[in-house]
Amino acid sequence: RDASQMPQRFLFYKPYMSNGIADRILIEQELHKALANEEFYLDFQPQVNLKTSKIESVEALVRWRHPTRGFVSPELFIPIAEESGLIIPLGKWILETACVQAKTWEKQGLPPMKVAVNLSLGQLFQQDLVQMVQEILQRTNLEPKYLQLEITESMTMNIDQMTQLLHELKAIGIQIAVDDFGTGYSSLSYLKDFPIDCLKIDRAFVRNIQHNQNDEALVSMILSMAKHLRLKVVAEGIEEVEQLAFLIEGDCDYIQGYLFSKPISAEQIANNYKDLHNRASDILTGMKYEE
Ligand code: C2E
Ligand code: MG
Ligand code: MG
Ligand code: MG
């Protein structure tokens, strides 16, 4: 078979494939241009402290505004960036932009807020990751305690390597959170070895919490386990007061979800800080009266 038949074969099979593969190759090419063309930006989603109703941290979430496709979800392009290696320069840009922003809010006189930044698996294998984080903190003049890096359980790395890496990151003075906690298949034993500060309960567990006793049991278990391990807990994807009530009952520390705020721009965080805080305060006060 000569190579000239390949495109034909491709065309022949195309109707039977979701046009996924062709699209994926195109997106990969476009991703490479997107950094230089400044098509990426960050939104930030508040995390509310349930005890104080203050926004003590925000999660940075990358956004891609494609010139013709419009908004492309990170769920789609992060894996492609990961496979193509673009995650290294993109991840660096995300980290630096998030730290610059945290410093900008500080200069604008906002109350101190930690910024949480998602790491990708590829970045964990980046030889100079620790040095890069250190340099970005120095360059942006952000105190390390205001940076939290989020890793996930599905980041398959040798346990010893991971433990060592996390200790090096912790030595800088930053915080470490485990994102999407409970959705990976990893054993729980890493929790005693990894120097982590925080668990983020995945939205999948919280979504049906009012209707599903198994979800309820799992979330309660995670909350009590975290307490024994002296880890903070952030519950993600809270949309309804009933979910919030359950988490307050279980003594959860922080809430992140549409109920309080969707991810919003850095300017919206700065301009609406008081409103966001008042909103959280109102919701939480309302809850306490109901008790
Ligand atoms: P994640 O890190 O678990 O981020 C939380 C996701 O849940 C965000 O989706 C956020 O918008 C969404 N979310 C928060 N509250 C609610 C809620 O109440 N209801 C619903 N339905 N959704 C809620 P987003 O921004 O689309 O990001 C999806 C995933 O893409 C992230 O999950 C993360 O894995 C990845 N991602 C996003 N930004 C970055 C980044 O800067 N770097 C890396 N490496 N990955 C990123
Ligand atoms: Mg995250
Ligand atoms: Mg998550
Ligand atoms: Mg997720």
UniProtKB/TrEMBL annotation:
Which ranges carry the EAL domain?
24-277
Starting at the broadest rank, the lineage of the source organism is: Bacteria, Bacillati, Bacillota, Bacilli, Bacillales
- Return the protein name: EAL domain-containing protein
